[in-house]
């Protein structure tokens, strides 16, 4: 829902209708306009009045602002226009030569300075020469352009007036318009890059001096005989407001409602009534780059209405495969519907194009796709030759299950927070997580999860040791700073074998564009190590939304709490994520994260409430996230989790597979999918998935514990015990591993050790519902019935004052072999939608239930395809 009220929305919709009709009518001959107005405005007098007013304003505004660049060429076609100035007549110090061309209000002549002997192009005003507004338009155009001094901008020599005839003396160009060249045939990519770089540089020069163009297009770019691109017609430009807020803005000399510029090149926000600015110039630059590489426009329609509709709501037309991926990403970012997601400066576009040009012309890995204020190029030519061997030859290769292509492994180390303040710490951790997720989702690389990189980076400062322990061929490290509403990140790639820095770069953006900054870094890293893009990578990285800093900070605080995985921390996480969606209901990651929290709060081992309450909340948040972002791997995985424990197993499998397809490096998706496969007794597949998760997050306590659990349930009890010991070597206080190991020891025939382990858990974690349930079931499996009954009675009494999962009690009776009471509590677990029900077909303590026809049918139905 828009933040605008209904009256404002109605006004906006009416304004869009007015513009659409105006654009449709303005293209028709004057004699046809009344008929067209009658048809398009039938029954809406207010609409007709607005459009008529705009048409009148347009007529008054004149046509100098639409002067074609062709009029400055020396090879223009003869025109039927009757020139006002005769050859050899004088205009100030200039002797007029031949007439070149004319537009609606402007005439252009070849001329020569009578003293300096310099050939020039003279631009005059035709029509009513006494009209002061026409003279102001011409003078304004000249003054703006005359402040610019750049080899790719047409030079203005003089602004003068002779006998009340204002004129501009400018550089006489010899060449062809870019539009004319494109009509002759395609331009190869190297040449297109050179032209794009020059035009971007010209635009950057103008922007740095507070001037925007407002009508950048191929007909306003001349390619001279030396191949130099020259930007013309800053006649639509206007002064930007200075940084101090002083009004430096000249009148645009277009009346209210008249849209200046060329429709096919207009940015969406300009069509919707916003003023032109740097971001709309960058949109036009994107259109020009698209045209340079495809000879077509990105948004096309049979009428003005169709064209404007395409600009407002449709994706650009697809580009030919001959256009390199990196160049397509640059163009698509320029053409992002949201201004904040485009490049911040034309200089950034120029630097990105230069990086692509260098990459195509020689092998040195230098500056990359997204430009920043400073860069470091660290590779020698010999090192550049070695890079492909490092990435594709000497790298330790791993294999994704089901994919027959070797995938290199890289590790993104936690970004440093040199300021030490907690808010920047959240941003640093969050950006680290974001880089890992985006690299995994957009490239064919295996990315180690932050939980493992954080653990190892804290243990040792030796990069060689970190690389070996993580199995990573390359390490990505860096730091983040926040100040004055901006986020600056320094990133470098290191070879862990010798700590040699292979590449470094710096990135800087407004804090509201933190996700765009994240995409900048991912693009740059992908180019630096020559990663192969995954399907959809281009659009994913090009369509990055802005996010309010307060929303993002709440989200990051929630992720910090989520990572602790305790009932209190999960509740705190819910508070932060809820606040984030209250501030911005359209922020999909916060909805997906809420789904994860609700899923965990409803579990037997970690939860603090009934899944009957929490799981519907989880499903609802996951669906909201997918409605906002159908490509969210996290949301698909969260929804798969709810489907698993609601016993919709075929649907769950589809969701997990989609989550893994979208991001093969999302370790939790592999874990949860493995648990589903275990429920379905597909133990080999389950072990494969959980081992993939462990390769992605080798030092995760949760994942290592899950490896042991699946081994135990599949009957490999001794291996499970060994795996739990490996897990506890990482953290001897990890309660879940102790709980799981107690049951595995009993199953392995080591009852006394199992009981001792279970009793040790009580000392570590206290007598909670989950630990008591584990203790009672271990007593029961070990044959210590009296002790098991005492624990069961304790839980039944505790149930009167707080939530106790039904199967925490039922599992005790299952361990004892008490079928009747186990079935009684199993029925209650089914009613409360306990996640334990999904494992009734495989868990040892649930064996007594398998003779129950209803429960057997329930599990069989869940397992059906």
Structure description:
With 865 residues, the protein is of the alpha+beta class. The protein has 5 domains: 6-61; 65-173, Phosphorylase Kinase, domain 1 (2-Layer Sandwich); 176-353, Transferase(Phosphotransferase), domain 1 (Orthogonal Bundle); 372-545, Rossmann fold (3-Layer(aba) Sandwich), CATH 3.40.50; 547-621 and 633-655, Alpha Horseshoe (Serine Threonine Protein Phosphatase 5, Tetratricopeptide repeat). The protein is built from 34 helices and 18 strands. Strands 12, 13, 14, 15, 16, 17 and 18 form a 7-stranded mixed beta sheet that branches. The chain has a 6-stranded antiparallel beta sheet with strand order 1-2-3-4-6-5, with helices on one face. Strands 7-9-10 form a 3-stranded antiparallel beta sheet. Strand 16 and strand 17 form a beta hairpin. Helix 13 packs across helix 16 and helix 18 packs antiparallel against helix 19 (567-583). The longest helix is centred in the N-terminal third of the chain and has 21 residues, at 6-26. The radius of gyration is 34 Å and the shape is elongated. The model is unreliable at 1-6, 57-81, 236-260 and 360-407 (pLDDT under 50).
